[in-house]
Amino acid sequence: MEQSIKVRHYEETDMPEIKRWAEARKVMIFEDMLPRMGAIAYDANTGENLSCGWLYMDNSVGVAFPHWLLANPKNTIGVSRKAIKLMGEWMEFQAELLNYTAFVTFFEEGLMVEEAKRNGWNLVGAGQAIMLKLLKKD
Length: 138
Prior knowledge:
By secondary structure, the chain is of the alpha+beta class. Helix content is about 30%, strand content about 20%. It is built from three helices and five strands; from the N terminus they run βαβββαβα.
């Protein structure tokens, strides 16, 4: 049976699995920092989740920021590519419905950069590092 990949909104019940993916990939993910607009690509035949990502949405200039893109470590590279591509298209559709005009994101050099280029992204800086500073809560 040919794999059929669909995309849906993220649900809180997805988080335990996503945390396992993040741990396997040595990525830190902060549940309380994730925006409302989250996506899950899944295999429509088996129900298995294949990738996830979130879309931060600026409220002043129509720019959205896809981030925290992760693929299930059990996927083949081909399945991960297809799942993340379809998830990105779903995010684009959602953003366009709200009149957003651009996406900006940050990747480390490597496979994700090359994949993004294949899907219409332009590289505007090289050798980027992703940095995080948590602010104190009173």
